[in-house]
Give the backbone structure.
Amino acid sequence: MTLSGRGSLGDHGFGRQQLRQGGGRGNGNDHLDELIGATELFVYQTPNKKTKGFEPLKLFLEASECELIFTVDVPPELRNYEAFRITHKSGEKIPDAVLRRCHAWAHGRNFLHSFFKPMYGAR
């Protein structure tokens, strides 16, 4: 689909500014309830984008007895993305406060995220 011409997103009410922004901005409170109880949270960092606030997030995770593990287990269409997995060190569910902060952090940077393991990739 293009902005102009046949199959145009402009015909469906999307302007240039909306298309440039992407769909993931915000804090994600509209679907945070879907994450509660998760044992893993995968975050996919946009390629070639400098990440701000990563060190404070890592410190928060360590203080909350959670760990951040970089992984190459990504879906083929996200092969250019750098991915990491957040888990609780004991293997239990991730505390709600940790999920809330990590989820808001990912949304604030427009990063893709998932609370389930991809069905394909390196095992």
The mean pLDDT is 80. The radius of gyration is 16 Å. The chain has one domain: 23-114.
